Amino acid sequence: MTAKNILILAGDGIGPEVMTQVKRIIDWMNGKGLTNFVVSEGLVGGCSYDAHGTPLTDETMQRAMDADAVLLGAVGGPKWDNLDFSLKPERGLLRLRKDMELFANLRPALVFDALAEASSLKLELVKGLDIMIVRELTGGVYFGQPRGIETLPNGERRGINTQVYTTSEIIRVAEVAFDLARKRGSKVHSVEKANVMESGLLWREEVQKLRDAKYQDVHLEHMYADNCAMQLVRTPRQFDVIVTDNLFGDLLSDCAAMLTGSLGMLPSASLGGDLGGGKRRALYEPVHGSAPDIAGQNKANPLACILSYSMMLRYSFGLLKEADLLDQAAQNVLNAGIRTGDIMAAGCTPVGTDGMGDAILAELTKLHG
Ligand SMILES: NC(=O)c1ccc[n+]([C@@H]2O[C@H](COP(=O)([O-])OP(=O)(O)OC[C@H]3O[C@@H](n4cnc5c(N)ncnc54)[C@H](O)[C@@H]3O)[C@@H](O)[C@H]2O)c1
């Protein structure tokens, strides 16, 4: 196995705490010969501002561009809240996403059996839920021109944002969704508002054309975004892969995430274009933030970060067996009733961040030897 370079940017708050547990797992997998990862670390967010006066240095940015995959913890915290907009910790994260051209954001909404009771929906609706939302991340109304706030001749003010998509932007993110569907349940729901938006109509037409040309084995359905929001809380198990634009994806992925219980359980991946030889830029990170309210107290749930690492194994390196092994270990630990505070339930065993890491490692050893 050739060595792969992983850049770890643990960030602020609970970022370094949860990342410590991931590094233990990386060491364990390297030690067992399951992976051959060379890990280097860098600063992003508030800690980078403190050290270098910027939330991301050019040097760290270049290392991210050169890495085979980047794993990020979380950024931000009250200490840096009053900085100028351009220096805020989040700008480091946004620059990583932008310069790496990460146009496809993958947000799984997966309900672990042991946690199904924690969902806001009834158990029978969410048990076994496994949805993958693919959100377009670099286009659409968050970036479209013209934008701004202007004053009209009559003194009234007008705010403008532009929803805009080109065929190539639609096709590249739809390809990611169809490729994923082929490895899952072979079903894609493409979500827009083609009834009231031309950009939505173009989205619908291009996704259909792509499916007919290249992905006839995948079942495709089109759905309006408002209906999708309703269906997600009505019968969420009808979905396999959902592909949608930046704005609708922002809302729908958060909605789907909450079907699954805690923020501390949610991983994500952001993928860039194919660089040839099966390589693509990729950033993996938990959905949660730096949780300043519990930082430094050994209370954070490391599973979102650990499951983000599992996504890295799966999507950057095709290490499916290793990813399955780690997912199974997490499942077994939860089934055994081991819980951090955010997912605690009656009769379960409370552990801290370290304790959850210990339990995952013990389970990996039990499953693999
Ligand atoms: N991707 C990122 O790095 C990212 C994302 C969101 C927010 N932020 C930043 O994080 C800071 C805090 O933001 P916030 O409080 O709105 O969101 P947050 O996700 O940090 O925390 C929200 C709540 O969830 C809890 N929580 C989050 N992750 C947890 C975990 N792994 N285990 C247990 N509990 C967990 C926190 O204790 C808190 O009560 C802000 O500076 C914000 O800008 C960063």
Keywords:
369 residues, Isopropylmalate Dehydrogenase, ten-stranded mixed sheet, two-stranded antiparallel ribbon, 40% helix, globular, binds nicotinamide-adenine-dinucleotide
What does it look like?
The chain has helices spanning 15-31, 46-52, 58-66, 89-99, 123-126, 167-182, 198-214, 225-234, 246-258, 303-315, 320-335, 353-368; strands at residues 4-11, 37-42, 69-74, 104-110, 130-136, 148-151, 157-160, 187-192, 219-224, 241-244, 267-274, 280-286, 338-339, 349-350. The chain is α/β, with parallel strands linked by helices. It folds into 2 domains: 1-105 and 266-369, Isopropylmalate Dehydrogenase (3-Layer(aba) Sandwich); 130-258, Isopropylmalate Dehydrogenase (3-Layer(aba) Sandwich). The strands form 3 sheets. The protein has a 10-stranded mixed beta sheet, sandwiched between helices. The longest helix has 17 residues, at 15-31. The structure holds nicotinamide-adenine-dinucleotide. Nicotinamide-adenine-dinucleotide binds at residues 14, 74-77, 90, 93, 263-264, 285, 288-294, 300-301, 304, 342.
